[in-house]
Structure formats: structure tokens, C-alpha cells
Protein: RNA polymerase-binding transcription factor
Organism: Rubripirellula reticaptiva
Amino acid sequence: MSRSESIKKLRDQLVRRRDALHRALEGDLSLLRELHQEKTGDILDAAADTAQDELNSQLIEAESRELNAINDAIGRFDAGMFGNCDGCGKPIPLSRLRAIPYATDCIDCRRKAESKNGSGTTVLWNRVFDNAEVDSV
Ligand SMILES: [Zn+2]
């Protein structure tokens, strides 16, 4: 299968996932509304309702975030930008897109972005520098 065929398939998957999320979000929201209508005034019930509400809103938040990412990816596809890295502009490997269809950067750029927050690569460079000094003596 060619890359463009694979990407077309990924778009279909994204659209299906988006529809499923839409349905889930609609279900969660109606559940939230029901919970609010069924409030009895009992303190324990109210506490349980609050916990359930929080759980639901966390779920909705996570689903909304994914939905945004998926809508963004579909938009990128329609703009002909889908599958290219935001960081370096190179095509994102299909294996990565299959794992995360709405990925916007390649693994190299993702690692670079993540290494800015850590010191993992600094240690490696120090070691290389030490070896070079030993060689020159
Ligand atoms: Zn990149």
C-alpha cells in the first residue's frame, strides 16, 4: 500500500473516531444533566453527585482534547499538510501515524522538544568530551 493510500485510510479512521467521540460526549453530557436533575438534597448523595460530576467532566475534558486533536488532523489532511512534521517538515513515519494518527511532529522532533526539559543528552555530551581529552594526551 502506498503512503497516500495509507494516509487516506488513517483519515477514515480519524473520522470514525471523531464520530464515536461525538456520541460519547453527547452521552456524557446528557448523563451530567440527569444527575443535576436528580439531586435529592441529601448530603451523601450530593457528595456522590459531585464526585461523579468531577469524573464526568474529566472524561469530557480528555475526550474534548482528543476531539480537538482529531479535528485538527482532519483539517490538516484537507489542507494537504497531514503527515508532515511541524518541526522539520519531513514526512512523519507511517508507523508513528498509525500509533497516533493526529501526531503533528516526528519522533526526532518530539525527542528534541522533550530533551529541552531534561538533562539526559547533556550527560552523554560530557562523556564524549572526556573521551576526546583522554585521546589527545
Ligand atoms: Zn520532525
Notes: Residues 119-137 have pLDDT under 50 and may be disordered. The radius of gyration is 23 Å.
